[in-house]
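Take a specimen:
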Amino acid sequence: MLPATSQAAPAAHSPLARYQHQRLTWKSCVLGAEDAMGKELQQAGARCADLTVPLDYTRPQGRTLTIAVSRIRATDPAHRVGALLLNSGGPGGQTLGDPPWVRRAMRETGARFDVIGVDPRFVGRSTPLDCRWPTGSAFRGAGHDRAGFDRMTRLAKDLARRCRSNAGDLLPYATTRDTARDMDVLRAALGERRISYLGYSYGSYLGEVYTAMFPGRTDRVVLDGVISPDRYGPRLLRFAGPSNRHALEGWAAWTAARDTTYGLGRTRGAVLAAVDRIQAAAAREPLRVGAYPVDEHMTPFVVFNGLSQDNAAAYGDFAQGVRDLLRAARGEPVTPSPGLAEVLAVEQSGADSRYGSAQTAILCGDVAAPRDPEVYWRDVQRARAEDPLIGPFTHDINPCAFWAPPRERPTTIRGDVPALLVNATGDPRTDYPGATAVRRMWPSSRLITLRGADQHAVFGVYGSDCVDTAVNAYLATGRLPVTDPTCAARPR
């Protein structure tokens, strides 16, 4: 395991000194006339820079990578707290474009921070990792029988082969530990002895790893959508079944109350039955949805993808997509709604290969997965008995079964971090028990609970004044709440 020095300031003789002392050149974030993200950053007053880091931290004189960074500087320098680094999750998600909306969510507190967006190694505008996949995701449903599972096993094996062929030299270094090392190089290059951190979803695990590898180098830490480190790995979706079923039932009740709009049924049970009919029809023969075939492996992904945000706009988009699929299941010609078309385009083309490649490489590079397909098949069968739609999706095999072993052991999360944790009780991605586990692991932390919402990512996203005020109070003062606050969800 590679050592992580506990020294706060880089020593001149350190093998990483040339990286830690590098001068960042801040420039326009706009890459061209069609660069909407760059223009939004520019309008918010952000500037961008490229950070140089070693590919392999055991060989700092060797090959290097570029890490894309954005910054909105503090506008109240007299009361400046420091730099707030962001990570929006994934793994594999871009964060470079996040400072404008996070800065708005921080209200007047944002004026006291340099808000820093970072595309982690191999993500977004940073040095890319691309396995040249024909899809944007490695996740599918296992199907209804052994033949379907075997198809997914062949797909997973093929995706892993493509990664070895097209990005094999990078794969060993696509890890959370190396991303944490990059964060610490950035901390030093920014001239900060300590950084504050806001991490969503997978970003919560990255925050846990960083605080463990570099103790004493964080100031204010907010983890929103909290992953318990003992659940993290290539099979982390195994824990998401009950929360996704709960979210599906909540969406079904909302949709049933709007039957005149969506026509999926007047009761929750009727709407859920419509979803089951879609899955049964797709198992018999792939549905034709515009130019896209939708089979029994794809429909659970569409359902899972539709269940992360607890608001009318997201519910409506998902209901339109389900209505399209139900029409296709009846044999009717269908032009998919924009939301469904976007999901199917991502999954059935190589346009987002880089996202799926990086996401999978990080998961596989962090934690070893079982190698025997029979392990997954047994789990799929058990999960199918509990939930025939979601269970075979959350327990299916993925390319990590055919990956090289991780280069390092996973980080052991020790100690006590006085962080502020945020989680909704019905979070379909990072379920609430994961947040309570981290709260117990870190006795000095506090947990803000958003009760009654099936929501993934809360601060600045869901629209809870209760949550946003509590988080901003902590960021402004550095003082955690005396007790664990509870906030109520909005009425549906």
